[in-house]
Amino acid sequence: MRPGNERNNWPEMDILTVLPSNFGYVIFTYLYSWIMLSYLAVKVGAARKKYDVKYPTMYSDKAQVFNCIQRAHQNTLEVYPQWLVFQTIAALVFPLTASVLGAIWVTSRLSYAWGYYTGDPAKRMNGAYGYIGYLGVICLSIYVGLQLLGVF
After folding, report:
1. How far is CA 28 from CA 9, 33, 93, in A?
2. Which helix (H) or strand (E) holds 106?
3. What is the DSSP letter of 119?
4. What is the rounded distance in angstroms from the CA atom of residue 38 to the CA atom of residue 77?
């Protein structure tokens, strides 16, 4: 037992012995997603200034481009928690595959945003390839769940 853990009777478990050896790739995928979210947030902040949209107003009645920039960030935030859960479940068993799928999804969110930033909402579909990454980690998560239930 480490000093200070005298009341803890649980055996110590080093996290590095529990996680798959390639889980480091997953951590870097999470960091990449944080960079992407930060970038989208900064873009919304800059657009607020440029189009004079004061907090807490979410959308502008006058600036359609601001609304597109705001929606690119908001839509990403709406799906991000689910992606994190599925990314993590998939990565616990398939870390390298999950990292590749995660990198595809994160990159697609940038493509989605850049398309949306044009002011033409149809161009957000430039990021549609992200469904490969998103649905991929969902499918892997289902497979992991079925493995745990002994189906596979």
Report:
1. 33, 9, 17
2. helix 95-116
3. T
4. 11
- DSSP-assigned letters across all residues of 15-79: HHHHS-TTHHHHHHHHHHHHHHHHHHHHHHHHHHHHHT--TT--S-SS-HHHHHHHHHHHHHHHH
| Other beta carbons less than 10 A from residue 100's beta carbon | 16
Q: pLDDT tens digits for 27-79?
A: 999 999 999 999 999 999 999 999 999 999 999 999 999 999 999 999 999 99
pLDDT > 70? residue 18: yes
Tell me if the pTM is above 0.85. yes
Q: How far apart are CA 17 and CA 113, in angstroms?
A: 38
